[in-house]
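Example 286, ligand guanine.
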Amino acid sequence: MAIIIDGKALAKKIRENLKIECDELKEKGINPKLAVIMVGDNQASKVYVKNKSKACNEVGIEYEEYLLKEDTKQEELLDLIEKLNKDKSVNGILLQSPIPKHLNINEAFKTITYLKDVDGFTPSSVGKLCIGEDTFVSCTPLGVIKMFEEYDIDLNGKDVVILGRSNIVGKPLIQCCLQKNATVTTCHSKTNNLKEHTKRADVIISAIGRPKFVTEDMVKDGVVIIDVGINRDENGKLVGDVDFENVEKKASYITPVPGGVGPMTIAMLMNNVIKATKEQYKEKTF
Ligand code: GUN
């Protein structure tokens, strides 16, 4: 039986510590604020954004939401980002993805000023991560690394197999795991003989968005399983990418869905807002 990695409890502990840091900033007259931009009417995004606003409330971070219409023009979106870049009361800017297809999301991310890049999606943040400099790291990968640290899961020399190559999760995770001295393999929809890779993995991090994709026969005994997936099964129940019930029997550690990576992602966003605020006031206050 595997040890269940309790992301919910760890995220709560992190939020409590961040609240102390947030209160300290407030005593100095600094009120951390996150601005969230959503374009269009994506139901899943609405749920994520609501959870982000709840977490801000708990930590004491001010929260401001900009809901743009589905037919928003690229120029309007970039103008809003520029305005928020200049607004000294805003410490973090988050553009919730996905956005409508007629808009260029990479151009929009690029427009966010580095010091407010709490999602770690700008080219500056991504580049700094690649060369091992301190930077804003994308929230889900950062949350996964915090879980490894909390549970003393050492990646040194381990075979880590990442399923999925998205800019948000898969690609930054490669860098995060490399920094921990893992041997990293990234698998995706065009990978041949997927099972050959997963079978020899010491650690599998799945971020592909398909329910019950990772099955018992694909993993070796003692594997560490991190399930980043957030899917609905045929009954509308929230499930990850992993067939939890059966894979758990072979794993040494496993994250549940819900209550695993999800709450950690949001806690890391809070972490990045506090980090951004501190960086912005470094010269004046700290
Ligand atoms: N959509 C799904 N996950 C994320 C995330 O971590 N950040 C943003 N901005 N959008 C997302």
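Summary: The chain has two domains: 29-116, 139-262.
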